[in-house]
Write a structure and sequence with these properties.
Growth Hormone, Chain: A, 20 helices, membrane, Major facilitator superfamily (MFS) profile domain-containing protein
């Protein structure tokens, strides 16, 4: 009897789907429309969060910051007029080489100023950058109580609205109320960030078969790279224009408002609620995607203790931590490096900081489509594809980070450092 049941089970597993496959990449595919809309939304949220890196170089009065920091430097502050150059040459042999500071003949730091007016120190800039991460950290746990019980479509809309409000008020707060109010606005933006990824993942689970999820993840997260590839040069151009840096905030807030309108009228939580879809695609999704209600009808039975002590969970947590730390540091501090160390102008800064995102965008999409093709042909499993991506990306990442640690401030080294960054970010295509 048991052997008959096993045989029936094997026959059931080999049975082909009755519904004809509806292609993802088709002008009438609602799944394709949805993933484009998700990519657009992710572009908006990433732009609102990350453009501060290059906008900050335009907001801050670099000349004033350099003078203040020089006054706080004991070597320069305690040196009298005629001995200034001699003392600087003696004491800055270490600090200038390690900190990559360019100094003029009078001993003062060479500064490229983009015309900003805010005298925020580098420590204060770092403090403001951290705001969104603190906000997201506070809500990432409680957010699970919402997206298991509420519409992921509406949660994503609410999260983007929080982004928009925080972005739109930032210029007013920065000019009139100071750095700490900007930090508070960034924390509130982080509250919205904590709901973005879970809501998008819930939408993907409701709409896409397993075989397509790798490609879909690469496509919607491509909004991240578009935000850097298109957003950085655009932000630099607005900063250099007569409109100034506040125009960057108002532009992306307006564009995100357009996304909210499109999302409100064209999206749905799952295919069953979609009013406009071909019969072929509807039948295919009804068979290929298992419907899961986002509303909890009973008490949660998630084994949190077992989950948080699982080796698989801890390994994935470590991988994401390392990946996000390195990518975040690059995104936030590459514009400052290009300005303060390589002394690039604002337009060149936006262009060079966009290059890693272009490389990452091209590579991650081709890599994910290749893996999905191999999975559809049963050549590799889902687990193996994840292990392969994480392993290859980590190994090559290590090979590029190690030589970067030996970079000094010589002419060729400063040119090599962005090149290593470019290759480094290219390898992060494996992770996404």
């Amino acid at each position: 009897m048991l052997s008959i049941q096993k045989a029936n089970f094997r026959v059931e597993m080999k049975r082909k789907p009755t519904a004809e496959r509806a292609p993802l990449f088709h002008p009438y595919s609602r799944r394709f429309h949805l993933v484009l809309l998700l990519a657009f939304g992710f572009f908006c949220t990433t732009f609102m969060r990350m453009h501060l890196a290059i906008s900050m170089t335009c907001m801050v009065n670099s000349t004033a910051v350099a003078l203040i920091e020089e006054m706080q430097n004991p070597y320069i502050n305690n040196t009298a007029g005629s001995n200034l150059i001699e003392e600087v040459e003696q004491t800055n042999a270490f600090s200038s080489e390690q900190q990559c500071e360019k100094r003029a003949e009078d001993g003062h730091t060479v500064v490229v100023d983009y015309g900003g007016t805010l005298p925020w120190s580098h420590q204060m800039q770092n403090f403001i950058f951290s705001g969104t991460f603190w906000g997201a950290l506070f809500v990432v746990g409680p957010s699970t109580l919402f997206y298991h019980r509420c519409s992921p479509r509406l949660l994503l809309l609410a999260a983007v609205v929080v982004y928009i409000l925080s972005t739109a008020v930032t210029p007013l707060l920065a000019v009139n109320f100071g750095a700490y109010t900007v930090f508070a606005a960034r924390v509130i933006m982080g509250f919205g960030e904590g709901f973005v990824i879970p809501s998008i993942n819930a939408m993907i689970s409701n709409w896409f078969p397993v075989e397509e999820k790798g490609t879909v993840l690469a496509l919607y997260t491509a909004g991240n790279q578009f935000a850097g590839a298109v957003g950085n040069p655009l932000a630099a151009a607005l900063c250099a224009s007569s409109l100034g840096w506040p125009a960057v905030f108002y532009f992306i807030a307006s564009l995100s408002t357009v996304w909210c309108i499109l999302w409100s009228f064209t999206s749905s939580d799952n295919p069953r609620k979609c009013g406009r879809m071909t019969t072929k695609e509807r039948a295919y999704l009804a068979e290929a995607v298992k419907h899961r209600s986002n509303r909890a009808n009973k008490a949660s039975t998630v084994p949190y203790a077992s989950m948080f002590t699982s080796s698989a969970f801890l390994a994935q947590l470590l991988c994401f931590f390392i990946t996000n730390v390195t990518v975040t540091m690059l995104h936030f501090y590459l514009p400052s490096f290009l300005k303060d160390v390589l002394l690039l102008g604002v337009i060149a800064n936006g262009t060079f900081s966009a290059i890693p995102n272009v490389i990452n965008l091209l590579f991650k999409i081709t890599w994910s489509m290749l893996l999905d093709k191999l999975k559809s042909k049963k050549i590799i499993t889902n687990t193996f594809s994840v292990r392969l991506s994480q392993s290859v990306g980590s190994k090559f990442w290590k090979c590029l980070v190690l030589p970067r640690n030996s970079v000094t401030c010589g002419l060729y080294d400063t040119r090599a450092c962005p090149f290593l960054h470019l290759l480094h970010v290219r390898l992060h295509g494996w992770f996404h």
